[in-house]
């Protein structure tokens, strides 16, 4: 009455491997063995073996390695020779001159006398140097730096008060996203 169902399913099963489970390692022939032109020299004192194989073809008159125009035989270029162009336009700017000791002392005095008037960028323009250099040479005391940060934060808070609801929401989402970086 009831037929066994699995008997027909067994005949439909594949009973052989369709591929190898692993790719066999490549078996490249060793180019140094069975080479009639190779010269093998073994040192007796140590376990070193030197194998010299001549080039597979004889040098032809069309070979460029011994040609006088070959870059291998060309003499080294002089250091004062022409240089390739810079990749970035900033490379064309001349290096700023080094500040003298008197200028550094004056820079420190101006920065410490009134940090609001003589900011890093203002002093950098005055002395033709970078703002980073000004911050290294004439660092403001930590208490004043904290005061600057508080003033900056109050300015930013006043600007944030003028934002609409959408912008405030988007900025809050952006801040939250930055926390997960």
TrEMBL record:
Question: Which superkingdom is the protein from?
Answer: Eukaryota
Cellular compartments per GO CC:
mitochondrial large ribosomal subunit
Single GO MF annotation:
structural constituent of ribosome
Look up and give the organism this protein is from: Paxillus rubicundulus Ve08.2h10
Give any Pfam family that matches: MRP-L20
Regions annotated as coiled coil: none
What is the protein name stated in its UniProt record?
Mitochondrial ribosomal protein subunit L20-domain-containing protein
**Segments of this protein annotated with the region Disordered:** 1-36, 50-96
| InterPro entries reported in the protein's UniProt record | Ribosomal_mL58
């Amino acid at each position: 009455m009831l037929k066994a169902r699995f008997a027909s399913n067994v005949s439909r099963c594949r009973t052989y491997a369709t591929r190898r489970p692993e790719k066999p390692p490549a078996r490249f022939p060793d180019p140094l063995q069975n080479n009639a032109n190779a010269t093998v020299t073994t040192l007796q004192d140590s376990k070193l073996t030197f194998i010299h194989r001549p080039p597979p073809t004889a040098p032809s008159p069309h070979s460029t390695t011994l040609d006088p125009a070959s870059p291998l035989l060309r003499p080294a270029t002089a250091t004062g020779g022409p240089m390739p162009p810079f990749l970035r336009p900033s490379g064309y700017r001349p290096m700023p001159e080094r500040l003298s000791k008197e200028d550094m002392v004056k820079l420190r005095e101006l920065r410490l006398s009134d940090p609001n008037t003589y900011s890093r960028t203002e002093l950098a323009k005055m002395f033709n140097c970078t703002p980073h250099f000004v911050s290294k040479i004439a660092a403001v005391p930590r208490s004043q730096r904290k005061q600057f940060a508080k003033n900056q934060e109050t300015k930013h808070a006043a600007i944030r008060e003028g934002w609409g609801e959408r912008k405030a929401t988007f900025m809050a989402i952006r801040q939250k996203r930055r926390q997960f970086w």
